[in-house]
Amino acid sequence: MICGVATIAASFQNLLIQNTIVTDGNYHASFYNVAYGDSKYITNNVSTIHSILSKGLGYSSFQQSNNENKPYIYLYAYSETAFNNLPINLKEGFSDC
After folding, report:
1. What is the DSSP letter of 17?
2. Per-state percent for the chain, helix, strand, coil, to nearest 5
3. CA neighbours within 13 Å on the CB side: how many for 96?
4. Residue range 10-34: average pLDDT?
5. Residue pLDDT, tens place only, 81-92
């Protein structure tokens, strides 16, 4: 009985982890407003296995917007690792890192 309950708990925990990876991405920590020159202290740390870099590029006009009060879109630049570990699906454009 104890083994069965432990197995169910472990299975449920794994289900929650996999669901979070699908919806939010596969990462453990986020650092915001880090200068690119200072990011080496995080990415080159011995405890860091993978690092995901992103940069907000700013707003651009978006003529296909359904919201006439906000006819713009905010653009981000992502590293190749970000495309593999975040729930991002590139529909058009290019992914050349």
Report:
1. H
2. 35, 15, 45
3. 3
4. 91
5. 888 888 887 777
